[in-house]
Amino acid sequence: MRILLEAEIKGRDEATRRNHRKQAQLPSGKTFESWKEEDSSIPVPTQHALMTLEWISRAENLACAGPSGTGKSHLAEALANKAIDQGMKVSWFTLESLTAHLGRATVDNTVPKAVAKITRSDLIVVDDIGMLPSGQAAAEAFYRVIDAAYERRSVIVTSNLHPSGFDSIMPKTLATAAVDRLLHHAHIVLTEGSSLRLTQATTGQGVQPLDPAG
């Protein structure tokens, strides 16, 4: 009986994780299995501290900023996958997809309901801020989620800009208010160096070698 109960619980937990992963809509399936900590410019002790996910239990945030290709999104997705493995719920957006999501809710006046649903997740990720200029709608969407999550849920943002520079790509008042809340309880991690993607591409590591024999 004990074995049957343990098997049932294990199966239920696995089904819950599958469901959480499906709902999170993570972009590429990157985990810490493919993460090479020695290639990252982030100090190894910092990497290990983030991997514990203890900061999520304290509703602390993570702001990861640095040049394109330096591992920001990989780290964010690996953390998100680990959070799901530990039974947490995750919501993943780019700033553009978040803006579109809340834009659709604006049409039928369900924005508060949509924001409330997002902030039921234990971890909210907004990836790649700053890659494109952001207008009023994007700034409002970002502010709404950051404000609703403030001191209640953890947020990861990744950007090629330091958050203090978000007012250069979105309206200053909203950017300042959002960043103030975001950074109040945040770990700020800066990446540097050349693009890991470009390095892999130029050394032939980005693809499987072609077989001339076909």
TrEMBL record:
GO terms for molecular function: ATP binding. GO terms for biological process: DNA replication. Residues 58-189 form the AAA+ ATPase domain. The keyword Phosphoprotein does not apply. It comes from the Bacteria. The keyword Heme does not apply. Keywords: ATP-binding, Nucleotide-binding. The gene is istB. It holds the Pfam family IstB_IS21. Belongs to the IS21/IS1162 putative ATP-binding protein family. InterPro entries: AAA+_ATPase, DNAC/IstB-like, IstB, IstB_ATP-bd, P-loop_NTPase. This is IS21-like element helper ATPase IstB. Residues 14-39 are annotated as: Disordered.
